[in-house]
Amino acid sequence: MVVHSSPPPALDQRRAPLAGDLSDPATQAFWLLRIGFVVAPILFGLDKFAHVLVDWDTYLAPELSDLFDVRAHTLMYAVGVVEIAAGLVVAFRPRFGGYLVAAWLAGIIVNLLLIGDFYDIALRDLGLLLAALALARLADADRARVRP
Fold this sequence. Notes:
It is a single chain. The chain has helices spanning 25-50, 62-68, 72-92, 94-115, 119-146. By secondary structure, it is mostly helical.
């Protein structure tokens, strides 16, 4: 007796997080992380100019303003531009953007550890760094699935 079974779908035929069904948990996770890492960096970046949420200058290690020979307030404008750009990169290139945001968060963690007063925020940012890496990996998994 011959039994015919169909082979599993090829990698390029499987549903992927970017184009997948929103009932799929991986797709849901991808979109939650992607939206979060677009909105948050852009809002925080814009607030570096508006100072509505907090006085961001207090979160900059003096060593960094000395290193760049610029006032903390001025340096925070540059930080705001980088954060806005990072959010836009995540919007259009989530695989690269996830790694970019993770690297940026690593820099923020180092900055906070240099200050020495914000260990709780550094720990929170470590969690965000891991989430950004998860976003990049989900986007990378999608990319691997659509390759022939």
